[in-house]
Backbone:
């Protein structure tokens, strides 16, 4: 049964329109735990605030996005801004309850990217984290600039923060974002920024990420968007109070691997449609099974409370809110 036939069959009994727009995060959420998919994309709940690892990762991404913009590159390479800029960081109160502040100096040419990263930062979610507090994050970014000076990068930027949306099959759209599109090693590559607690030697990229749905989605999207793409280059940044480690390594995909990816994606879309079709009413949770191993993944699943409480209880307790962005997208995001 192809996608066109499956869509026609499952829409007959589904109480909701079948989704036709998928991102790698949406598919990955489904693969990890169908119940998490249900709470996120059908109930449309979102936790208030982010866990510290996610908030720190978003902060670093915003910094790098601003840093690799053309104006930042030009400023760094050409009319280099000299001197230092000072940032005043509020830190947790000391044992006697007194307010504390840290004064951190950074190169002036990094001031604009850091300010851009600070705009949407939820400082409360990271303030008590040993590794991801703001003071340590700023030091990591300054060290990153020393490790990879803009005027000595080994790649050429083609585009930054690029969204792709390409038709996969039968009006099914796959979409996502590239952090950077670069020319490197005699070809076109996607660079993806990643924060992690520990940086290895890169061997896990060649072993642990083949297969990997996110990597294959990026490579598929790049090849559909740019006709040619050699693969994905990871830009790993270690978030640690004790160590400053950075790693860049790459991975690619053969035509056989991409064929396997497309078959897996097609079967996954049919699978999610079948669960929509099994729903007895628009908010029926029964077809969406809970994968218990995900409950304690990375410490604790941010949706764990959802599985043990009603939507009304969660909203009333201010732990979760309805995600207005996804509501506006009509379950298509």
Residues:
């Amino acid at each position: 049964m192809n996608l066109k036939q499956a869509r026609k069959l499952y829409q007959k009994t589904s109480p909701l329109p079948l989704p036709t727009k998928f991102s790698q995060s949406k598919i990955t959420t489904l693969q990890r735990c169908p119940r998490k998919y249900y709470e996120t994309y059908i109930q449309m709940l979102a936790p208030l605030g982010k866990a510290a690892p996610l908030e720190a990762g978003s902060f670093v991404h915003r910094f790098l996005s601003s840093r690799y913009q053309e104006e930042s590159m030009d400023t760094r390479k050409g009319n280099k801004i000299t001197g230092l800029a000072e940032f005043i960081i509020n830190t947790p109160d000391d044992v006697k309850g007194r307010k504390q502040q840290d004064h951190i100096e950074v190169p002036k040419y990094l001031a604009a990217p850091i300010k851009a990263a600070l705009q949407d930062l939820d400082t409360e979610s990271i303030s008590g984290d040993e590794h991801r507090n703001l003071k340590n994050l700023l030091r990591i970014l300054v060290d990153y600039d020393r490790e990879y000076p803009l005027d000595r990068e080994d790649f050429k930027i083609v585009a930054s923060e690029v969204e792709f949306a390409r038709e996969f099959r039968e009006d099914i759209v796959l979409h996502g974002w590239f952090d950077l599109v670069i020319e490197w090693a005699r070809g076109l590559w996607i660079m993806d920024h990643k924060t992690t607690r520990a940086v290895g030697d890169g061997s896990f990229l060649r072993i642990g990420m083949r297969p990997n749905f996110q990597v294959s989605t990026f490579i598929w999207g790049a090849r559909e968007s740019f006709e040619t793409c050699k693969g994905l280059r990871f830009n790993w940044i270690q978030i640690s109070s004790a160590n400053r480690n950075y790693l860049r390594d790459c991975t690619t995909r053969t035509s056989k691997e991409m064929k396997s990816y497309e078959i897996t994606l097609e079967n996954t879309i049919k699978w999610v449609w079948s669960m929509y079709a099994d729903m007895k009413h628009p908010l029926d949770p029964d077809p969406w099974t809970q994968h218990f191993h995900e409950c304690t993944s990375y410490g604790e699943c941010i949706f764990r409370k959802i599985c043990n409480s009603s939507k009304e209880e969660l909203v009333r307790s201010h732990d979760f809110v309805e995600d207005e962005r996804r509501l506006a997208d009509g379950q298509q995001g």
